Amino acid sequence: MSHDNCIFCKIVAGQIPSAQVYADDDVIVFKDINPAAELHLLVVPRRHIPTLQDCSVEDQGLLGRMLLLAPKLARDAGFAFEAGSHREANGFRVVMNTGPGGGQEVYHIHMHVLAGPRPWKRM
Ligand code: 5GP
Ligand code: ZN
């Protein structure tokens, strides 16, 4: 079920272009238009869910798959965490902003995957 005025539903539907790096039956992954770090990807479910707070136990598989995708995406981009390595671009961060207080701007759940040398921009 898509939401008429939702920018991420439009990206999922291909009505708005995006720099897509991954897609499967549940999610698409594309580059953030205003990257805060060298790697800044958005993992976006195809299904419209406004916030993490709207998720229920039925969504635990989807949420688990989104989280498990992060290390694969980071590895593919060259930012896997390597124990013992202290280079700056060693590892990554996942973020899900929820609600105005959490800094959420797009009300279609998405997980940010960020990596790269500091400093990062505010997001
Ligand atoms: P939020 O603040 O909701 O957690 O994150 C929304 C993110 O979506 C922001 O980092 C913003 O740059 C990104 N964004 C907003 N509109 C678009 C768009 O049309 N295309 C892409 N690729 N990213 C977008
Ligand atoms: Zn949507």
TrEMBL record:
PROSITE patterns according to UniProt: HIT_1, HIT_2
GO molecular function: catalytic activity
Ranges where the HIT domain occurs: 7-123
UniProt motif (Histidine triad motif) ranges: 108-112
Active site feature: H110
Coiled-coil region(s): none
Taxonomic superkingdom: Bacteria
InterPro entries: Histidine_triad_CS, Histidine_triad_HIT, HIT-like, HIT-like_sf
A Pfam match: DcpS_C
Name of this protein: Histidine triad nucleotide-binding protein
Protein species of origin: Pandoraea terrae
